[in-house]
From TrEMBL:
Keyword Hydrolase part of the UniProt annotation: no
Keyword terms: Cytoplasm, Protein transport, Transport
Source organism: Cinclus mexicanus
Name by which UniProt lists this protein: TGFA1 protein
Gene Ontology biological-process entries: autophagy; endosomal vesicle fusion; protein transport
Amino acid sequence: MSVKAFKLVSAVEREMLMGDKNYINIECIECCGKNLYIGTNDCFIYHFLLDEKVSTAGKITFAATKQLHKYLGLKKPVSELKAASALTRLLVLCDNTITLVNMINLEPVPTGARIKGAVTFTLNENPVSGDPFCVEVCIISVKRRTIQMFMVFEDRVQIVKEVFTPEQPCAVAVDGYYLCLALTTQYIILNYNTGVSQDLFPYCSDEKRPIVKRIGRQEFLLAGPGGLGMFATVDGISQRAPVHWSENVIGAALCFPYVVALDDEFITVHSMLDQQQKQTLPFKEGHILQDFEGKVIVATNKGVYILVPLPLEKQIQDLLASHRVEEALVLAKGARRNIPKEKFQV
C-alpha cells in the first residue's frame, strides 16, 4: 500500500548546465541554504541560487538562477564538494587534492591551503574541537589503510590525527570521535581518539558499493548484506529494525520519518517507524542521492531534482481517508515532534 510522501520536482535542467555540450556530466552536488553547487566531469564548478515557489494551489516549484561557473584548471572530474558555511568556504576534491575556495566567488583562498592525498572525504557534523571557526575533515588517504583527521580554518589546514585501519577503507562517516568505516570485507566502528574498534557485520565491497551515512547523534545507516538498510550506533548495536532495500542501492538519505534509497530504476521510500515501503518513484539513470539540511536531492548525469516532502498532516489525512487507521496513528505518534502541537491534538 502506498503513501504519497514525496513529489519529485526538477531543479536544474540540463540546458542550464551544459547547453548543447553533451559530454558534460554531473559528478557531485552540494546544497547549503539556497546555494546549490555542481561539480562536473570537465573540472568545472557551477553555482546556482535555488528559489522555492509555492503556487496558490500549494504546488511547489524551484527556479534555479546561475550565479557563476569556474574552471579548476585540471583535466580531471570534480569528485566531491562540501560547504563549510561558517567559514564561507567550499571544500573541493579534484585529482586527490582538497582545495578551499570562496563560496561566493569560487576563488581559491589566497594562502593556497589544501589537503593532498585524499581519495574521498567527509565533514564531522558533531565536531569535537568546539571551535566555531573551524571544520573537522576526515579523509581516506591515498596511503594504504590510512584515515587522516584535519582541522580546516578559513585559510589554513592542520592535521590532527592519522589512524591505521585493519583493511583498506572505501567509505567513511564521522560522529564526534567515532568513525563508521566500510572496509574491504566488513563495516566497523573506530574511535580515533582511543583506537578502540568494533566489528559491525561483514560486507563485500568488491560486489557492491558500500553506503555509510550518519543519520543522527551517534547513529549511522549502512547498506548491509541481502539488500538490507541497517542502523548501527557507535556502541555497535542497532536500536531500529532494518529496512528492505533492493540489492543494488546506490545512495540513501534520511528525511524523518523516512529513509529514501536510490537504485538503477527507482527511488524507494521506507518508514523508519514501521519499516514498511511507502512509496516507489520511477527514476532512471540516477547516480546521486543526498540530503542537505532536510532537503533531499537526486541527480542524473544531466539534471538535478528535489524530492519535496508532502506535509505530514496531509499524509495522515490521506491514510485515514483510505481507512489505514493503524498506519496513520503510527505516523502521527512517530512524527509528533515534526507536527505543530495544535494540529497534532486534532
